[in-house]
Amino acid sequence: MSKNNNLIFKNSAILYFRLIVTSIISLISSRFILEALGESDFGLYSVVGGIVVLMAFLNSVMMATTNRFIAFEIGKGIIGNVNKVFNISLVIHICIAFLVLVLTETIGVYYVFNYLSIDPNKITDALFVLRFSTYATFFSIISIPFQGLITAQEKFSVRATIEIIRSFLGLLAAISIIYYLGNKLKLYALIIAISNFVPPLLFFLYCKRKYYKFSKWNFQKDKSKYIEMINFSAWNMIGASAHFGKTTGSILIVNSFFGTVLNAAYAIGNQLNTIILMFSMNLAQAAVPQITKSYSSGDSNRTINLAAYISKYTWFMMALPALPILLETEFLLNTWLGDYPEYTVVFCKFMIITTLISGLGNGLNAVVEATGKIKYFQIILSTTTLISLPIAFFLFDIGYPPESILIVFMITTGINVISSQILLKVIINFDIIFFLKTSYMRVFFVAIMSSPLFFIHSLYPSNMNRFILTTIFATTWLILSIYLVGLERKEKNILHRLIKQTFKK
């Protein structure tokens, strides 16, 4: 177990390194893109890109399915079954990729012509972005089984390297359009599409070289396995539809009521929030294969323990960047972007708070996926998620401000976190009391200790000195709070041993 736990720690460190590098590159790229495209074209790109994401929601469904089934079979130790699952997944993803092409060329094009709130002179540009974004998505979808195999083998260093390469290519795309005198939006969409072809190619080449016995082509006729994976995906599809429906639907609703400038503010908020979200997901991603393998081997105690501790640790890791950003949102945006669209600050803060609430459930999703008993989870949680869209639409329609949609999202997210635990209790007799004591109680204490910082911070004028002092003090205070009230005695002892071993080396 110690070896497996060390592997989780190692892979988490790799993913956090990837996050730091890609986040820095992403922030730099965003400034170049916003400067080169302008608020309106930047917002247009985010809206049209959102349509493609909506068309590709099947892809996210099958990604989760592929990762789960491959890791499950590896946990049982049968090579032939791993290859079977891989090939079935590959066939399904090829079908999905072509389906996305069809959906984009029909529903996507129809939406652009009839419902997208843009300057009529920008229709041609929108269609160009739509199509080339779809081409990039096509190859990404086909690469999912190869990514799933790498993830199940816990080779996160490979994924991290390839994703860093993708980020650098995106930065080069952003820089290349700054001094271009022609249609910058079209050029950017073209270069991004080309650069997004590189990662799928690298995933393919790596798997063919390192995991040929798992990834070799062998067309499967096992209808029962197809049915099993498709049934699992069908229920997962409900959750994916709700998630992408909420994400893309919110973009489209904001566009309908407030136009592309507010879409730009929403996109910037999403980008900053994604960084926080990645801090919560990295440790969870590293632990997912272990949770799935533990469950498939019958070790339910380790499964539940991993879920509880992962939920707590990921929230702590997420809070470390979230707290300084919440305190210094205005200064960060001014430094990062210079001039930024109205409502960007408000959007950023509400999105981050919602992500912090969502982070309380990290670790639970992996347990749900591992059990395979996802029917009622997806029905109940997806219904709660989708209800937020008509509520937001109604609020906008009667005159409520743009941030109303994020307040609704915050409330429904909290409801879903609570619902997940209750459902797990019913399905697999999940120990809620243990989870609350191990995770939520410790998180609550840390949050309470950190709350006075918001009052103290408001007493001083905004400038670089305040930003530096706030970042240092808030981070130090949060780390101290985590140590004092966030960790149990046994966790502190483990930490002490790790520190001693580090200094000895």
Describe the model.
- It is a single chain.
- This protein has about 500 residues and is mostly helical.
- It has a domain at about 1-220.
- The chain contains 21 helices and no strands.
- The chain has helices spanning about 1-55, 55-75, 80-115, 125-140, 145-150, 155-175, 185-195, 200-210, 210-215, 225-260, 260-295, 300-325, 330-335, 345-360, 365-370, 375-395, 405-430, 430-450, 450-460, 465-485, 490-505.
- Helix 3 crosses helix 5 and helix 11 (about 260-295) packs antiparallel against helix 12.
- The longest helix is centred in the first third of the chain and has 54 residues, at about 1-55.
Topology at a glance:
Layout: H1 2-55, H2 57-76, H3 79-114, H4 123-142, H5 144-152, H6 156-176, H7 184-195, H8 198-210, H9 212-215, H10 223-258, H11 260-296, H12 300-327, H13 329-337, H14 344-358, H15 364-371, H16 375-397, H17 404-428, H18 432-450, H19 452-458, H20 464-486, H21 489-504
Helix pairs in contact: 1-3, 1-4, 1-6, 1-10, 1-11, 2-3, 2-5, 2-10, 2-11, 3-4, 3-5, 4-7, 5-8, 6-7, 6-8, 10-11, 10-16, 11-12, 11-14, 11-15, 12-14, 12-18, 12-20, 14-17, 15-17, 16-17, 18-20
